[in-house]
Design goal:
Low-confidence stretches: 42-68, 235-265, 371-395
Order of helices and strands: EHEHEEEHEHEHHEHEHEHEEEEH
Mean pLDDT: 75
Radius of gyration: 22 Å
Strand content: 25-35%
Number of helices: 10
Helix content: 25-40%
Shape: globular
Length: 395
């Protein structure tokens, strides 16, 4: 893992109109004392027209080609750039001044309203493992309090993933924006709908995308050295967003008429796997690799706390799509503390029963083989594994 004296990166995602650009405009103009590089899809007029913004440039080399990268140096010390090509190379180009000092100490990357956060998160995460100057801190998802329920249940062709659901699934922190446009009852329904998809992400509420930066920066969501505080997951009977929405009288289009018992078989949900006792690291690593790479359901995020056989340290799991990392944290099991493994998965078409059965089957196979299954060592290599000869299709 990279030392966290490097530059943290937060990915800012959310559907069209959720308030991402408004939030970034605030970051680029407010006097918050932070030097933040904001990477946008394109530089809008509201950013480019800021008074006293200085246009900076440098040679941006990617492969054998060299282009001139331009960015705006803003009065509050922040930087704004539109990176169309290699994102990591663009950031490294901007990072250092001619005298070797750094221009910024934090990065916010804005994704388009329909973008899948998974591939971008994977870029920074894998680059972190390769000792990059940047590391992935968290994924921040904005949702529009007024329209998110309709977006979450917009019909899709069979096999297609709802973009708004996917953005919620990837989130380490959710921001319900435009709070002033909904009632308390409507806000409660929105919270329930988000919880049904992603149980583990804390929910913040904002108006006009204004919120303390301390609540969304330096979260350490992918820091495996820290102990994860996992919320309880009622995966046996998850709340259905559609049912919650309809119970509030906010009807919308579905393939069939909405009822309180309506269930989307392909909905994105949070499920958990719990095991009392220790597990062999190799068996767990093999199971996770098979699960994330070959299992038919699409898993967008996974995280967990693991008791590894023969290890005093608690092991932390973090995963994005088919990539995962399993590392010992700087926290040990206390004397007398029950050693329990708890894993959380967020994905499409998941079943807690199937996940638990698959997990137990892997443990049984390991026990029958005497715990000699081959597997990755405790270095927790990011897997599938990314060393495979084919990329998995983005969910």
């Amino acid at each position: 893992m990279a030392e966290h004296s490097n530059i943290p990166v937060t990915i800012v995602t959310g559907f069209l109109g959720a308030g991402k650009t408004t939030f970034l405009q605030y970051v680029l103009t407010a006097n918050h004392g932070l030097r933040i590089a904001v990477i946008q899809n394109e530089l809008g007029d509201e950013i480019g027209g800021i008074e006293q913004a200085v246009v900076m440039s440098a040679a941006n080399k990617a492969g054998t080609e060299s282009t001139q990268l331009q960015w705006l140096q803003l009065p509050n010390g922040c930087i704004c750039c539109s990176a169309k090509d290699d994102l990591i190379v663009s950031l490294e180009t901007m990072l250092h001044t001619p005298d070797g000092s750094t221009r910024f100490d934090y990065v916010l990357v804005e994704l388009s309203g329909l973008a899948d956060p998974g591939p971008i998160a994977g870029i920074f995460w894998v680059d972190d493992a390769l000792e990059s100057q940047f590391f992935l801190d968290a994924i921040l998802t904005f949702v529009d309090a007024r329209h998110i329920l309709e977006l979450l249940h917009e019909p899709r062709a069979e096999g297609c993933v709802n973009e708004a659901q996917r953005q919620v699934a990837f989130a380490d922190r959710l921001v319900v924006n435009k709070r002033d446009l909904v009632t308390e009852q409507q806000l409660a329904v929105v919270r329930s709908a988000l919880r049904a998809i992603n149980t583990s992400a804390p929910i913040l509420v904002s108006e006009r995308s204004r919120l303390p930066l301390v609540d969304v920066l330096r979260l350490g969501a992918f820091d495996l050295r820290r102990e994860l505080l996992l919320p309880p997951v009622d995966s046996a009977a998850p709340l259905e967003p559609a049912a919650a929405c309809c119970s509030a009288g906010q009807h919308h289009r579905h393939d069939a008429q909405c009822t309180s018992s309506h269930r989307h078989d392909d909905a994105i949900v949070t499920c958990s796997v719990t095991h009392e006792g220790e597990v062999a690291l190799g068996a767990l690593t093999n199971w996770l690799g098979e699960l994330l790479w070959h299992w038919p359901p699409q898993i967008f995020r996974c995280k967990g706390v693991v008791a590894v056989r023969g290890e005093a340290a608690k092991y932390m799991l973090q995963g994005v799509c088919s990539l995962f990392d399993l590392q010992p944290a700087d926290v040990c099991w206390s004397p007398g503390e029950a050693r329990v493994c708890k894993l959380i998965f967020v994905g499409k078409g998941l079943s807690s029963h199937s996940l638990q059965a698959s997990f137990r089957s892997a443990l049984l196979l390991d026990n029958n083989s005497g715990g000699t299954q081959p597997g990755n060592s405790a270095t927790g290599q990011r897997t599938p594994h990314e060393h495979g000869d084919a990329e998995r299709d983005s969910p």
